[in-house]
Amino acid sequence: MQRITLADLNAVIARINRETNSPAQPYALNADGKHTAQPGCYHLSRAYGGYSLHRMSNESGGVRDVFGHGHMPARELYSCMHAFLAGMNAKEAA
User: pTM to 2 decimals?
Assistant: First the structure.
């Protein structure tokens, strides 16, 4: 079984952002040189030895856990994200 790396997780997240027309990065520099949140962006959260897929909810930096399971091992999140993509593709095909 191949190890799931941080690069693997970020590649799937980049694909999710592309397919949902979401911003690629959770924060961007504004004209004043300050970082501002990019609502709609899917991004990786790392804590407690695990990973979670978050989506930026508002311009204040609020996020939500997409799967509602908290932080999990990389392989589990990788599988969840691929299932998420498959669901999106199935919806488009219908």
Answer: 0.91
